[in-house]
Amino acid sequence: MQIPLVSFVSLALLTGSASSKTVFSGLSVNGVDQGHAVGVRVPSSNNAITDVNSNDIICNTNFIQPVSDTVIKVPAGSQVTAQFHHTSAGYTGLADPSEPLDPTNKGPVTAYLAAVPDATQPTVTGLKWFKVWQDGYNSETHQWASDRLFLNKGNATFTIPSCIASGQYLLRAEAIGLQNAYTYPGAQFYMSCAQIEVTGGGSATPQTVSFPGAYATNSASIITNIYGITDYTPPG
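That's the AA9 family lytic polysaccharide monooxygenase sequence above. Prediction below.
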């Protein structure tokens, strides 16, 4: 069941001062939940990253310790679900109107992969990333990816391409809040990285980008007034 847009607008007016914070803290593979913080580098804070030129834009920072040393097996072509929750604790079962994110949050959700020799390696600078999925704005329904994330209880589901090479990767899943993105800095970036190993893959060599570098401070995808918007392309 979909919640009408008017419900989101009314709720936004009622909770305009609420936090839009969210955390990617768990992964499911073909519907099988791998567990909270298992194979995911979960930041200890749900504060946004706002500097696109900071290394923190890669996988976030100040992770819950110890960081998981699990590498999640993902057959190429599988569906994975990035699980977002309001806090780093994941789903607590407590009543929280901002679980998995506050409905005033408006923006895209994206996912990237970077091939690495060892998915548990602490170093994430200098990696080459390619986008495997994005969900932006639907001009017909006037819903954002964040609205769909809210309706889906924080679950963002997408396919790991069957054509990419087998091996270990970092999976970077990110929700972006644009409700205050009138100027820079204003956009809010919420990302974490999961440690995965793709099996049964192909030999594709996708085009890549770097973080920092993929997002420009003057990009129309990052500096934007979302109210009255008719079209939007996610950054990266």
